[in-house]
Amino acid sequence: MILLLAACATDPGDSAAVTPAPEMGAVALAERISLDVRGKRPTEAEIAAVEADPAALDALTETWLHDPGFPARVRDLWSEVYLTRTESFLIAGSAYGLDDVAFQRAVGEEDLQLLGYVADQDLPYSTLVTGAFTVADETLAAAWPIDRPEGEGWLKAHYTDGRPAAGVLSTNSLWWRYPSTTSNANRKRANAISRIFLCDDYLSRPIDFDRNVNLLDGDAVQDALRENPSCQSCHNSLDPLASYLFGFWWYDYTNPLEASTYFPAREQRYRDYTGVAPAYYGVPGYSLHELGEQIAADRRFPQCAVQQTYELLLRRKIALADTAALVEHRNDFVADGLTVRALFRTVLADPRYRAGATDEAGYVPLKMATPDLLAAEVEDLTGFRWEYGGYDLLGSDAVGFRTLAGGADGYNVTSTATSPNATLLLVQERLAEAASAYVVNEGPERLFTVDFAATPETDRAGMAAQLQALHLRLYGHRVAADGEEVAAGLELWSSLYAVERDGKAAWAGVLSALLRDPDFLYY
Question: What pLDDT score was predicted for residue 9?
Answer without folding.
Answer: 37
